[in-house]
C-alpha cells in the first residue's frame, strides 16, 4: 500500500467523470501470464490501485486509471522477481500506468477498451476486450490485454541460446467494486 499515496490525483481525476467505484481489493486481481520455452509462469500484482468511475449506479464506465509499482509484480520466485526487475530497469522506471480513453461498446456488456499504457518509461496506445457488468451499484470488470514488451523498449530474454521468454505477455484484470455516492 506504499504506492497508494501517489495515486490520489488520478483517483480524483477519474471521479470527476461520474460516480467513483470503490474497489474491493479482496475480490479484485491482476495477473500477468508469461510464456517461455521452459518455465512459463503467472505473476500476480500484490499492490495496485485502480480508480474507476461510472455515469450512474447502473451506468457505463466513464473513466479509469490503473497504477502499480512494477516491483509489486510477484512470480513466487524471488530470483526470477529480481531478474525481472533488472530487465525492466525498475530502479529507473518504477511505475506502470494505464489510462482509459474510452470504451467502444460491442453489446451484451462487452466492448473494447482504448487507452494508453506507460511501461518502462514509454507510453503507447493499448486496446483490449473487456466485459463489464453493473447491477444495483455493483460493478465487475474483466479485461484481457496482450502486451508486446518490445514496443516499450524491452529486449527479448534469451538464456543458454535456446531458452526464450515470449515478449508478448498476457494481462488479465478482474475488478469488483461498488458505486459510491449515487
SSE blueprint:
Blueprint: H1 8-15, E1 19-23, E2 29-34, E3 41-45, E4 48-54, E5 61-69, E6 73-74, H2 78-88, E7 95-107, E8 110-119, E9 122-135, E10 138-148, E11 158-159, E12 163-164, E13 168-179
CATH superfamily: Lipid/polyisoprenoid-binding, YceI-like
Inertia-based shape: elongated
What level of helicity do the residues show?
Answer: 10-25%
Distance between the termini: 27 Å
Sketch the topology as an H/E string, one letter per element: HEEEEEEHEEEEEEE
**CATH secondary-structure class:** Mainly Beta
What profile does the largest beta sheet have? Answer: 8 strands, antiparallel, barrel
* SSE class: mainly beta
Strands, count = 13
Mean pLDDT: 89
Total helical segments = 2
Question: What's the structural domain tally?
Answer: 1
Taking Cα atoms only, what radius of gyration do you get, to the nearest Å? Answer: 17 Å
State which percent range the strand residues make up.
over 45%
Based on the coordinates given, report the CATH architecture: Beta Barrel
| Uncertain ranges | 1-16
Arrangement of strands in the largest sheet: 1-4-5-7-8-9-10-13
CATH topology: Lipocalin
Provide a concise account of the structure shown:
The chain is 10% helix and 54% strand. By secondary structure, the protein is mainly beta.
What does this structure look like?
The protein is mainly beta. Helices cover 10% and strands 54% of the residues. The protein has 2 helices and 13 strands. The protein has helices at 8-15, 78-88, and strands at 19-23, 29-34, 41-45, 48-54, 61-69, 73-74, 95-107, 110-119, 122-135, 138-148, 158-159, 163-164, 168-179. The strands form 2 sheets. The chain has an 8-stranded antiparallel beta barrel with strand order 1-4-5-7-8-9-10-13. A two-stranded antiparallel ribbon has the order 11-12. The longest helix is centred in the middle third of the chain and has 11 residues, at 78-88. It is elongated, with a radius of gyration of 17 Å. The relative contact order is 0.21. The model is unreliable at 1-16 (pLDDT under 50).
